[in-house]
Amino acid sequence: MSDIFNNTSRPNSDLFFSRNDKNDPRLGEIVGREEKDYEASDIVILGCPQDEGVRRNNGREGAALAPEAIREQFYKLTPFNIKRKIFDLGNVKIGASLEETHDTHTAVVKQILTDGKRLIVLGGGNDISYPDGKAMAEVFGVEKWIGINIDSHLDVRIADRRNSGTPYRQLLNEGLLRPKYFFEVGFQTHLCSPVYYSYIRELGVHRISLELLRSRTEPDLELKEAIKQEFIRHSSSLNTFFGFDLDVVRSADAPGTSAPSPLGIRAGEFIQLVKYAASLANTRMVEFSEVNPKYDADNRTTKLVAIGMHRFCTGVA
User: Fold this and answer.
1) How many domains does the chain divide into?
2) What CATH number should be reported for the domain holding residue 152?
3) Which of 142, 147, 261, 286 is 20 to 30 A from residue 301's alpha carbon, by CA?
4) What is the pTM of this model?
5) Are 152 and 213 in contact (CB under 8 A)?
């Protein structure tokens, strides 16, 4: 267990908010952050504060600031309805290269999953879906996990070097993720290459576009049901990973992302999806990526993720 502490830095104590009011406790007063608190915890928070993958993909920089900015909002929230013990492990130590950081991140995530914890990962760029997915495959087995990419993009780009647009191509090409257990949800066709769409279609990847979701009269319910109908038959026996790229949320609700769009799911729909992820008994990890505090307005995006984390913690099956 010592390796996960050697490979991470402790969370900034200034982020752990307190009102000093016994009648109004906040998560900053309750969430564990000392090594001794890890063993008894049910849910672990882990940050990966880097945006090298975003730079490589010609995106706008700033996602490296997200883990701390999200924590700042999360620890102001109350522990209302949270019954699970939460532990903040801090941030993965950033290496000299993206590849080195990914190796460290994989090792830390593998240990947390092996220890039987649920995990909340805070990016950073969406490239962390690769080490997160690799850890899922190596801990549970390739045939025993489902990956759900909730994103306005497909993230199966071909590139000379890995970046924020390549993680699921890497997982598929390396045989770490089975196409029949991979779900692309919320993608916008006008943002997706037809070449890459043909690639996932021919592999047999499950596809639920934003346009399909928007064709329903009750989007909140249909968003949940569309995914449920596709993979609920597997979820009782397979371990599940949800990757939430915040650019899937429309920019009116989440302006601070690496690649904002005026179209996307609404804030309420995002929270509904997070709650659904929590409700599945075998959801092992949720990942929030591509938050960019440099471009946020009134902390709307970081607050949205913080609320999503809260709903996950209250709803874990």
Assistant:
1) 1
2) 3.40.800.10
3) 147
4) 0.95
5) no
